[in-house]
Amino acid sequence: CDLGLSTLGPFSQTGVVDYVIFAVLLAASMAIGLYYALSGGRQRTTQEFLMADRSMHCLPVSLSLIASFQSAVAIIGVPGEIYTHGTQYWFIGCSYILGLLIPAHVFIPVLYRLRVSSAYQYLELRFSKAVRICGTLTFICQMVIYMGVCVYTPAFALNAVTGFELWGTVLATGLVCTLYTTMGGLKAVIWTDVFQTVVMFAGQLAVIMVGVQRTGGVSEVWRKVWEGNRISGLDLNPDPTERHTFWTLGVGGIFLMLSLYGVNQAQVQRYLSSRTEKEAVRSCYMVFPSLQLALALSCVMGLVMFARYCGEDPSDKLGTSSRDAMVIYFVMDMLQGLPGLPGLFVACLFSAALSTISSAFNSLATVTMEDLIKPYFPAMSESRATLLSKALAASYGLLCLAMAYLTHLMGDSVLQVALKIFGMVGGPILGLFSLGMFFPWANSTGAVAGLGTGLAVAFWVGIGSIFTRSSGARPLPPDCTAILNTTTAIHTALINHLSLFFSRPTGLKRFYSLSYMWYSAFNCFTVILIGLIISFLTGPMKEEDVTPGTIYPLLGKLLCFLPEHLKKKLCCVTPLGQTVSKMMEFKEQHMIPCHRFKCSTSL
Ligand SMILES: CC(C)(CO)[C@@H](O)C(=O)NCCC(=O)O
Ligand code: NA
């Protein structure tokens, strides 16, 4: 195998074409932002700025749905994972089936029919204002931390290989994104997502095609990855501390998907911007093939990369041990001498990042406005509210630059960091919504206590795992030794010190070694369990006090084969006993179309 590592920084050697392609991406995104700033309702109402006038079709919505959580982290992280550990990760594709069917048929109907603008409004309808605020604050934390990883990843990787100025790139990404998000609102965010998703697929496809050709064709790539032991079979090991098995990926992954596609504001906002409920459900279905394609492209890229380097480790020659930087190196190595293609890949990386960050900005502006500001300033004028939403989108943009710096200080693989954040903070939010939708007895005190406990346990395990690292990366033979990241002496000393503390109790060590793919499920169940216990201790909610339409009759739907009278006895979550006046009040306030989930009739 010829590693061909002599020429670093191929991007700088290629012509202007590459820079032009990259500039076109940024310019086109800005143009879309400008277009929606000047057309339609000119972003003068929060309905348009945050909800796209609830007029979207399913195709743009579905492409935008994939774009939200498919960032440069996945484009760089997944090939790195496949290169080091083989194709086991690919089994996460199994979780997409239930991970999208459940949002489409459980979460979308409930949230769409309530006609909320923020997913957290649901929490107030179901529980109380306090729960809504706790939910909103948790979501804000999740997205702000995640955004840091998203902005940082492409900038870091490019810098490691091509010498692109790191903080300059971070700043440019953040600023461009802030500008078009602030100008064009959700319409611009959705349509730039569409355009950027296409660029993302094109860039990945180009790398794979050129890579396969330069490595000697499909059969040669296959031979090398097969001999290199990179094709993993179905691993049915039930051990929950095993990092990647069918159970952690295929089952644990479902909960990860639910927390992202079921209750995350970024996605809920897209469902709600659809013209009809049917259109929203359809867009959720359409995510499935595209998400499988995205997964396949990034996994195949990892395999081609393996075939290219034959399991040898070019990291010492490269001067960095980071798997993530190596993926960029591989791409630039493949594409050098082909004018335009390195530029296309850089555009692909930034498309992926921009589409995620813009969704995050817009959803953060929405929840801050709808959940934290509007309820307390009901008299605020529409123009002032819109101006404030724009200021919010812009200030979250600046905050995310600060978070990028925090990510800089962490040393895990970026994919694992991102999925851990989803599990540690998104898992408890999923638990909170599940508690509300499926358990009519849960009350507000239980919900707050459940969320608090869920977050505390999540961070306990999450932080504990950093310092034990026993479940961590064991690379497959031939050895592509994963070397710990470049950390400063102080950083290392701190870790050593803390790991002594964390590794003392052997029982706990096993607990800390829980596979990060189980985080979402585990944290979701903690919230439900504690929520139910506290609810029963403090007096469970009575059926007639629950707002109509906030409960999904899960048990009733699952037991649809039972005879009617038994079903009534078992499942009846019929918020129909609701006093008429209270329901009218809700309907007036929130324009709930008179759809109620009634056990005996709707099943
Ligand atoms: C979240 C899934 C599993 C599905 O969308 C995938 O896109 C992924 O692995 N994303 C990693 C996080 C990121 O790309 O930012
Ligand atoms: Na994206």
Automatic annotation (TrEMBL):
NCBIfam families: sss. It is a multi-pass membrane protein. One of its GO terms (cellular component) is apical plasma membrane. Gene3D superfamilies: Sodium/glucose cotransporter. GO terms for molecular function: monoatomic ion transmembrane transporter activity; symporter activity; vitamin transmembrane transporter activity. GO terms for biological process: inorganic ion transmembrane transport; pantothenate transmembrane transport; sodium ion transport. Coiled coil: none annotated. Interacts with PDZD11. PANTHER family: SODIUM-COUPLED MONOCARBOXYLATE TRANSPORTER (PTHR42985), SODIUM-DEPENDENT MULTIVITAMIN TRANSPORTER (PTHR42985:SF2). Keywords: Biotin, Cell membrane, Glycoprotein, Ion transport, Membrane, Sodium, Sodium transport, Symport, Transmembrane, Transmembrane helix, Transport. Pfam families: SSF (PF00474). It comes from Lates calcarifer. InterPro entries: Na/Glc_symporter_sf, Na/solute_symporter, Na/solute_symporter_CS, Sodium:Solute_Symporter_SSF. Sodium-dependent multivitamin transporter that mediates the electrogenic transport of pantothenate, biotin, lipoate and iodide. Functions as a Na(+)-coupled substrate symporter where the stoichiometry of Na(+):substrate is 2:1, creating an electrochemical Na(+) gradient used as driving force for substrate uptake. Required for biotin and pantothenate uptake in the intestine across the brush border membrane. Plays a role in the maintenance of intestinal mucosa integrity, by providing the gut mucosa with biotin. The chain crosses the membrane at residues 19-38, 58-78, 90-112, 133-158, 164-182, 194-212, 244-263, 284-307, 344-367, 387-406, 418-439, 446-467, 516-537. This is Sodium-dependent multivitamin transporter. It comes from the Eukaryota. Belongs to the sodium:solute symporter (SSF) (TC 2.A.21) family. It is found in: Apical cell membrane.
